[in-house]
Amino acid sequence: MLNDTRSGRITAPEFLQGLIDTLTQRGRAVLGIKPDREPGEDRDLALLGEALLSRRGEASGVAIAQSLLAAFEQAGEPQRLKFLASLADRFGPDRRAIELAIAAYQRKEGGDGSKLEALHAAAEPRRQELIRRLNLAPGGTSSLVRMREVLLSLLREHPELQPVDDDFVHLFSSWFNRGFLVLRPIDWTTSANILEKIIKYEAVHAIQDWEDLRNRLQPPDRRCYAFFHPQLVDEPLIFVEVALTKEIPGAIGPLLDKSRQAIAARDATTAVFYSISNTQKGLAGVSFGNFLIKQVVQDLARELPNLKTFVTLSPAPGFAGWVRRELKTEASGAIDEETRRTLAALDDGGDIAQAKEAITALAAYYFLKAKLPSGKPVDPVARFHLGNGARLERLNFLGDASAKGMKQSYGLMVNYLYALEHIEANHEAFAEAGTVVASDKVKKALRAKLSSRDLVPSPQSNSLRKISS
Q1: Contacts of 317 (CB under 8 A, 6+ apart)
Q2: How open is the CA angle 198-202-204, to the nearest 5 degrees?
Q3: Which 3 state secondary structure label does DSSP give 141?
Q4: Rounded CA separation 157/383 (Å)
């Protein structure tokens, strides 16, 4: 229901918000909590957390939760770190309760089922319930996402906070379940508030200005979709930009060209996902991008039955860094002396066109053979699309000749093909065995360079298999 300012009537959202505000104010009055922190005042956030866990009344609970979240927002880094550390230690599992639950289970009094449930409940860290109660505050979900963003910024220097992050991910995975997400199209008529965030959050191909944004949203052969959550109404969680074309593109420049001639949507045969951007740093590791792609494919296929091909034009953000690491490895299985000379000439200002064969062959090795210890590809974008059931379709030399593209991947871009009839089989092959499903053309790019010799894979590839023709 919308705000009806002309009639003067109070709408449902206004009434609900007013009720929450009233409960919060009464809770503060009962507890003697000031709505705002006095200058120079440092609140003990851990004590507020203890108070929140000890309360059963909703009014007082909402008031404490709101006060704690507000205090965390206002706090400096030392105080924030102190509170997050208390989540790891003070609000961890109750060891005494666990010991008693284990003893009761071992005695098997009252039936195994109930004792096992009691043990499970005792093992849950207190911080999980604290985070749940913080979420009851108005705007609590948004505040907790920002809190985790702070946590992630501290995690590298404070690895002892990892259990806290694990619990955030556990809870967020439930709260941001696909069932709660709403897919909405974004176009030139969408509210300026959301459009500004599309400009701000675009992480793959920066949007230069409003005219650039118009070029991506308004023409009939362009689409954009975003996932939203009911608790973050005007905050897109992730969005994808789509170009409708007559063929699979090999370069990003023509797609973003403001002077290009648009085509009618009904004339397109190919939907190209050329940019996928996560917007909330505090939701890193909470996966809903796979749902986004599949939902958009279904919606486009329903809207435009003339579309036969669904494909990405994706960056390879880790490729250049991997090549540099391989160059430092004398026993690299990916780089021979000829390739070293070619890349050295390129560093000395040589023509990159002369390095096409070397870069393409290295890219084929990078995607097909270079692995993490888990057995998955080293490239994060590849892991995302292959895990969703796509096929590695084509390697595009100089697909992105921008400064950013040259720095991160020697200009390389990749097409991942979403063939609807093969998505599930490809996903299963990747999930179960780490199999990179690739086109013959990509496989040929690897064999053309390496078929004359067997190579010992580099340490980064973590593969013991021979490469053979």
Answers
A1: 379, 380, 381, 408, 409
A2: 155
A3: helix
A4: 27
Q: What is the pLDDT of residues 97-119, one digit of tens each?
A: 666 767 777 776 555 567 667 66
Give CA–CA dist 275/289, Å, rounded: 12
Provide DSSP, 291-326. HHHHHHHHHHHHH-TT--EEEE-EE-TTHHHHHHHH
Averaged confidence pLDDT in the chain: 85
216: number of Cβ within 10 Å: 25
Q: CA-CA distances (angstroms) from residue 279 to 218, 274, 391?
A: 22, 16, 26
Distance (Å, whole) CA 91 – CA 84: 10
Helix or strand run (H / E) with residue 337: helix 337-347
Report whether 404 contacts 412 (CB < 8 A): no
Joined together, the tokens standing for residue 93 give 């599992």
Distance (Å, rounded) from C-alpha 427 to C-alpha 415? 17
Question: What does the alpha-carbon distance between residue 313 and residue 271 come to, in Å, rounded to a whole number?
Answer: 10
Q: Dihedral (C-alpha) 398, 400, 405, 411: value to the nearest 10 degrees?
A: -10
Round to whole Å and give the CA distance between 48 and 303.
52
314 is catalytic: yes
Is residue 180 within 8 Å of residue 237, measured between CB atoms? no
Contacts of 379 (CB under 8 A, 6+ apart): 316, 317, 318, 319, 322, 366, 367, 370
Question: For 378-385, which contacts have Cβ atoms below 8 Å and span 24 or more sequence positions?
Answer: 378/318, 378/322, 378/460, 379/316, 379/317, 379/318, 379/319, 379/322, 380/317, 380/318, 381/314, 381/315, 381/316, 381/317, 381/414, 382/316, 382/414, 382/416, 382/436, 384/289, 384/290, 385/312, 385/314, 385/416
Q: Reply yes or no on whether 385 is catalytic.
A: yes
Rg, the chain, Cα only? 27
User: Could you report the per-residue pLDDT of 182-209, keeping only the tens digit for each?
Assistant: 999 999 999 999 999 999 999 999 999 9
Residue in 60, 277, 314, 332 annotated catalytic: 314
What residues form DSSP beta bridges with 309? Answer: 270
pLDDT in tens, 327-355: 998 888 888 889 999 999 988 888 999 99
**Angle between helices 337-347 and 356-368 in degrees, nearest 10:** 120
Dig out the tokens for 201 from the structure: 């959050």
> Out of 385, 409, 458, 461, which one is annotated catalytic?
385
